[in-house]
Amino acid sequence: MSSEPEFGVMLSTFGDHAYPAAFRRVAATAEREGFDAVWAGDHVSFPAAIPDDYPFSRSGESPFHVGLDTYDVFGVLSHLAAVTDEIDLGTNTCIVPYRHPVVLARNALTLEQLSDGRFDFGVAPGWLRTEFEVLDVPFEERGSRTDEFLRLLDRVREEGEVSFDGPHHSFRTTGFHPVPESGRPKVWIGGKSGAAFRRVAEFGDGWTIFWDHPDDIAASRERILNAWRDYDRTGEPEIAVVRAVHVGADAERDTLLTGPADDVVADVEAYVDAGVTRVVLDFYTTDIDEQVEQVERFAREVTPSF
To answer: Three-state DSSP class for 153?
Structure first.
């Protein structure tokens, strides 16, 4: 093993298993068991028409549909900030173009304050074209709008009072107080494009990805490090992978992070050797009891090896 990884838990804010008591229970379990973070995804609304180009499945078929219960990620994490004490709370990932940049900056700064500096701000341009249509945001502008926001956020965190003239939004001097501590909140960039890797180097503290194999992460990390050096960044970026986990002999050993604890430990070691600094648990089940049991089992049987 090259270093000691952190561990997190992915909280679902969509579906029949997404409800306030479940959010509190999963977050409390993760904190009690010594996990470093709880992260949650971001959608504003699921349209009736969802194209088959979901980027995190081989078939492109999306797990989402128009009838899903859907909770606002900033509302959920603000709620959890009041019922947790130490665990980091993060968006993975907030879709930047969905919101006006001033509103989004205020959301992030507020959550940073409400959590006493525990907010992980994961951001990405988004993929669900029809959701952009619902929100009346041009899908083709999602990349440039993400860059615009990240440039604004850099200034907001340093200056507090900012005037801005960007390709999509311009405004006279306005305040963004209270300004967080230097370098806060930590910014994680999602995505696998060259533009995403450039954003990690230009604006980010880390990179986050779903499901990738250790070999793929190692290759992506090399590209990120090349960009990192181009921007004269010091140190190295953090890297998080979100992956479904099932610890137990009852699981078929047909994918990484499933099966007996020793096998899962070996898989985590492979991710660490590839450059991963945080492994975030997702789940094969929507049953909250089973999710909690997996968090507890992982803490008992896997994390002590690190």
So the answer is: helix
